[in-house]
């Protein structure tokens, strides 16, 4: 099976073209569990399957977390698959990608840099009580990618081991009926933030989360804590930039800019029982 390995600020993915493979959802889920394993497979945070478009896009993206669960959308993955679509001739300098959460558009800014328009928030709850006190809750798209946003002073000085118990607890907090990606954040300066994201489906911290970064800037733009223009967000794998436009107190446009890196491509040999695991 042919594959491409890509990453966006250290958030890494395996990309396959399912337009000819015609794998079912169950088969793609099993494939994600196998290929994304960092000991027995190639290793990645998620698997993205290119699918035929159904609603006028250039192509569609099926996203599977490393544990095989389906993800609504992935911001870093969207930038990577936009690069894949451009380089494979599926789209031009601008890309239209159909996702479970809705249409995502992309733009090639350079060989390794892409800008995507994320889905607007369908839910933006500034105050949600959790076991650890007040948090915020944002979903991008519909059905939305769920994000818990929890302020944490001095975050940048903490390592993952120190943060993991709190993040894991927020990930499974009853305040979030379908679970949530847990985002801890701190404000470093004017339009300068730091974030650490414990992701559903990976069940650990990743080096970057595009939808988490976008959700954070959307929240802080609405609450007046950032301008919404060229907001820099430090992820462990690199800095992402977000632009948010607001009208009447609501986010109407949300853009995420950052790297989309091609790591390698090759052919994976699959065990006979890969779809039965």
H/E element string?
EEHHEEEHEEEEEEHEEEHEEEE
CA-CA gap between termini: 18 Å
Low-confidence stretches: none
DSSP strand count = 18
- Structural class estimated from helices and strands: alpha+beta
Rg (C-alpha, Å):
18 Å
Name the average pLDDT.
96
- Oligomer kind: single chain
- Classify the beta-strand content into a percent band: over 45%
Largest β-sheet summary: 18 strands, mixed
- The helix content, as a percent range, equals 10-25%
What's the tally of helices?
A: 5
Question: What is the approximate shape?
Answer: globular
Structure characterization notes:
This protein is of the alpha+beta class and 277 residues long. 19% of the residues lie in helices and 46% in strands. The chain contains five helices and 18 strands. It has an 18-stranded mixed beta sheet that branches. Strand 3 and strand 4 form a beta hairpin. The chain is globular, with a radius of gyration of 18 Å. The model has no long low-confidence stretch (mean pLDDT 96).
Q: Which terms summarize this structure?
A:
globular; alpha+beta; 18-stranded mixed sheet; 277 residues; single chain; 5 helices
């Amino acid at each position: 099976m042919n594959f491409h390995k890509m990453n966006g600020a250290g958030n890494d993915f395996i990309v396959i073209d399912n337009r000819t493979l015609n794998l079912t959802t169950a088969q793609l889920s099993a494939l994600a569990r196998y290929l994304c394993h960092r000991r027995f497979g190639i290793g990645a945070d998620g698997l993205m399957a290119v699918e035929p478009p159904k609603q006028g896009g250039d192509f569609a993206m099926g996203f599977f977390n490393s544990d095989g669960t389906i993800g609504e959308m992935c911001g870093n993955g969207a930038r990577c698959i936009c690069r894949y679509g451009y380089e494979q001739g599926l789209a031009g300098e601008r890309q239209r990608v159909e996702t479970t959460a809705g249409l995502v558009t992309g733009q090639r800014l350079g060989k390794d840099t892409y800008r995507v328009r994320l889905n607007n928030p369908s839910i933006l709850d500034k105050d949600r009580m959790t076991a650890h006190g007040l948090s915020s809750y944002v979903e991008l798209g519909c059905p939305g990618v769920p994000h818990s946003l929890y302020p944490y002073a001095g975050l940048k000085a903490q390592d993952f081991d120190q943060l993991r118990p709190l993040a894991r607890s927020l990930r499974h907090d009853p305040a979030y009926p379908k679970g949530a990606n847990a985002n801890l954040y701190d404000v470093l300066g004017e339009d300068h933030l730091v974030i650490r994201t414990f992701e559903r489906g990976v069940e650990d911290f990743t080096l970057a989360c595009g939808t988490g970064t976008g959700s954070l800037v959307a929240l802080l733009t609405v609450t007046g804590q950032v301008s919404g223009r060229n907001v820099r967000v430090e992820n462990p794998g690199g800095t992402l930039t977000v632009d948010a436009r607001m009208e009447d107190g609501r986010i109407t446009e949300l853009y995420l800019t950052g790297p989309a890196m091609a790591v390698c491509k090759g052919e994976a040999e699959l065990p006979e029982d890969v779809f039965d695991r």
